[in-house]
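Exercise 7.
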Amino acid sequence: MSMNTQAVSSTSIQAFFHKYWGWLLASLVGVAVVGWGYATNDNITVAVLASTIRQATPLVLGAMCGLIGERSGVINIGIEGQMLLSAFVAFLANVYTGNLFVAVLAGMLAGAVLGLLHAYMSVTLKIDQIIGGTVINILAIGLTGYFYTAGLTTEGKLQPLSLGPLAKIPLVGPVLFDNPPITYATIILVFVLQYVLFYTRWGLRTRAVGEHPRAADTVGINVFRVRYINVILGGAIAGLAGAFLTLEAVGSFERGMTNGRGFVALAVMIFGRWTPIGSWGAALLFGLASALQTQLQFGGQVNIPHQFIGMLPYLLTIVVLAGLGGRTRAPAADGVPYEKE
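Solution. The predicted structure, written as tokens, is:
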């Protein structure tokens, strides 16, 4: 009996390392690089890591928007448009109300409305979901470009909240415990969504609808309702990402300011294997690439044209998708409209 238990345990460990060896290797290399950097120049290391957290925030929010939808069977490539229009609405709300909390809610509401539009096109009208997402992207670019007015100023932006003694811990404190509210909310949301998606009835129904909607319908799950709720909720999360850009990261709005983050978020979602924690890890990797390219551009450490340095995060996106895209499996019913018999 004990020999069988040891065999099963050994097999489980081998399967774990086979599945996550890439993450383990990346983690070890990351820890080694951070440790060496902190010993060499602690100020630059802290600045790069803090920037990594900030750069990763809109990416993981966009990834969670996508994975909630895809776990229920709806592909959403309109994340870029949802983030962009939400950023614009949040900015305008801040300009005309001067209330940052109201502005954040306005951004989330705008994202939810676009989520409702995408759900209507995908679930009710059953049009091609890629086309539906493209429509949202074009709509957001057109609306923000048409109604944008230069010279508008806000009453400020969300400021970092230091968590007392925790913020004074060397290296970890300034990076994790001295951030603005949306960054904190994002980290909490990652773990909440991970739990809800894999350990609650709602999560089980969501995954059932994304894998085998007919079987889910047979046991009484309303496939259409689950997909509507997920896509709208995902839109609200993408709206939070847009609010982050204008209310926390920049404090103003510019045309096309999402700068492809919605599409990078899709790569983050795939790299994270359609899980919130995995997506956060992938977002941190992309955030680190962005933080490093910023440091290299403005730090003057290397004599390389800035155009090549600026390509770093996007090259990483291509490499990750090319190397990992064929080894991950999306939910079985992803992108397939459901026809109720």
